[in-house]
Structures are given as C-alpha cells and as structure tokens.
Amino acid sequence: MFDEMDELAQDYDETVRTARESAGMSQEDLARKLNEKASLIRKIERGDTLPSDDVQRKLESALDVNLSAGGTADESEWSGGDSTGEYTLGDVVERKDS
C-alpha cells in the first residue's frame, strides 16, 4: 500500500510559494485553478499542513514542480540498501553494543 507513495520534500512549502509567485499568481488565483480553498494554500505554504496526494498532484501539475523527496542530490549521501533500492532494518539501525 505504501510502496506507491512518495515522501514529500522537506521544503515543499517554499517550493509551492516560490513557484506560485514566479507564475505571478496570488494564493487565491492558485486555489481557484486547483478548485481548492485559499486557506488550504496558505496552510501549505506556511508548512502548517501537508497536501493530500490529490492536492500534491494538482500542485505539481499547475506549478510544474516536483514536491516528492526522492531523486534529490541528498540521495547521494545514503550508502545503505541493495541493488533493488530496498532497505532493510539493518541498513538504518546503529547497534549500541558495537
């Protein structure tokens, strides 16, 4: 069930705000375009709420942005995992007795 879900980027709020401003839209304009409430856009841009999967897709399409955390430069810091991209508990746990 969770395999298809992408993790939201930490800076999703800044990405949405910057893209909206670059497009010359107000929060109300973006809300109308997405058929959502302006209060939701304000909360997303402040980082007070996470967009639902549906709203995330609409934002990405309307603003031509990617709000998923995967595929960023930060990924190169991770050295665990196998060739399939799957991680095990052993990849992320640090033992205290070592």
TrEMBL record:
<feature type="domain" description="HTH cro/C1-type">
    <location>
        <begin position="16"/>
        <end position="70"/>
    </location>
</feature>
<dbReference type="Pfam" id="PF01381">
    <property type="entry name" value="HTH_3"/>
</dbReference>
<keyword id="KW-0238">DNA-binding</keyword>
<protein>
    <submittedName>
        <fullName>HTH DNA-binding protein</fullName>
    </submittedName>
</protein>
<dbReference type="InterPro" id="IPR001387">
    <property type="entry name" value="Cro/C1-type_HTH"/>
</dbReference>
<feature type="region of interest" description="Disordered">
    <location>
        <begin position="67"/>
        <end position="98"/>
    </location>
</feature>
<dbReference type="GO" id="GO:0003677">
    <property type="term" value="F:DNA binding"/>
</dbReference>
<dbReference type="InterPro" id="IPR010982">
    <property type="entry name" value="Lambda_DNA-bd_dom_sf"/>
</dbReference>
